[in-house]
From TrEMBL:
GO terms under biological process: DNA transposition
Protein name (database record): Transposase IS116/IS110/IS902 C-terminal domain-containing protein
GO MF annotations in UniProt: DNA binding; transposase activity
Short name of any one Pfam family annotated for the protein: Transposase_20
Organism expressing this protein natively: [Clostridium] clostridioforme 90A6
Superkingdom field: Bacteria
Signal peptide range: none
Domain Transposase IS116/IS110/IS902 C-terminal as annotated: residue spans: 3-60
Length: 129
């Protein structure tokens, strides 16, 4: 894990970082995934993303409601394939945090995470709000 000092380095390893489209004085504005990294890791990450977006047919609830909510918000303004790429990016963040903190995955909402963080780190919480 020493190879990845930041999440951006992990994105680059998976090939999720933005590719550059420049030539001479031309600077492209359409940004795509670079796909320079490990194609196997990217395919596995894509499968993880798709499986997190599934909805249980019996209960009609998403398998991972936090990721599914993020995906639906992204789909409101982006194409579905771009939204899946954003989900892959978010899962990459989760993987980095799990490896950095040496903790297992725990499904919690962002609100619950903020409450836990505020309880553990009272000095860093902004009380002026």
């Amino acid at each position: 894990f020493d190879l990845f000092s930041s999440p951006k380095k992990l994105y680059a390893y998976f090939g999720l970082d933005p590719g550059v489209n420049d030539s001479g004085k031309f600077h492209g504005d359409r940004v795509h995934m670079s796909k320079r990294g490990s194609s196997l890791a990217r395919r596995i990450l894509h499968m993880v993303a798709i499986n997190n977006l599934k909805v249980d047919k019996a209960t009609k609830t998403p398998v991972n409601p936090v990721i599914y909510d993020y995906y639906t918000r992204k789909c409101a303004s982006k194409k579905k394939s771009v939204a899946v790429g954003a989900v892959m990016h978010k899962i990459c963040n989760i993987i980095f945090a799990m490896l950095r903190d040496n903790k297992p995955f725990e499904l919690i909402t962002p609100e619950e995470h903020r409450e836990r963080y505020a309880a553990e780190h009272p000095e860093s919480v902004n009380t002026a709000a």
